Please model this.
Amino acid sequence: MTKLLPRNIFRFFVLVLIQVLIFNNIQLSGYINPYIYILFILLLPFETPGWLLLLLGFLLGLSIDIFSDTLGMHTIASTLTAFLRPFVLDIIAPHDGYEMGTKPRVLYFGLAWFFKYAAILTIIHHIVLFYIEIFHFGGFFSTLLRVFLSSAVTLSIIVLSQFIVYRQ
Model:
């Protein structure tokens, strides 16, 4: 476990920097905004305690909010994503459960499992983030389109990162 701490700290800072310096500047037609920083929450070990998940989700969102000047929107969305992660993992768990020492990666569970896992949490994150941003349901369908387009691009980048960073 102590071996994982420096790796996760490094991943935290790298994803925050990539999000703030690169992906926050990408807005295609106002509908596509990739938020890859949630990959940090997705890749945390299965054994991560719930209180630590919430704390890390909060700190991750707060870091993005500080650099993006977004007044807590990312904090709420990433904390909720971290809160719901154990429930999603329970729902999509393999029949024999998760083995100790495995991590939520394509390498361990395959593309279909990882895509389902990442898609559920990414869509939840984006729904909360974008509806908090507009804070009314006047543009419900245009915001829903924005959620799905941004989620598709974010998921594509997340899955692609699995094949680039975590190859055998």
The helical segments are 4-21, 39-42, 50-68, 73-91, 106-134, 140-165. The chain has six helices and no strands.
